[in-house]
Amino acid sequence: MAQQTLVGSISAPDFPEDVEWLNVDRPLSLKDLRGKVLILDFWTYC
To answer: How many independent structural domains does the chain possess?
Structure first.
């Protein structure tokens, strides 16, 4: 199997400003999380 090389880059969009955060002092941005390992747990209420 040949190894593929990606050309260019695509940045992820930052989190929306109206998101409610739990257990943090202030809203987070992707810049704050760069270089860290994190788990995002999304809840859906039906």
So the answer is: 1
Torsions phi, psi for 33 (to 5 deg): -95, -5
Q: What DSSP designation does 17 have? A: T
CA 30/CA 32 separation, integer angstroms: 5
Does 8 map to a domain?
Answer: no
6 within some domain? no
Q: Give the model's pLDDT for residue 37.
A: 92
Residue range 2-45, pLDDT digits in tens: 777 767 778 888 989 888 888 889 998 989 888 999 887 777 77
- 34 secondary structure, DSSP code: T
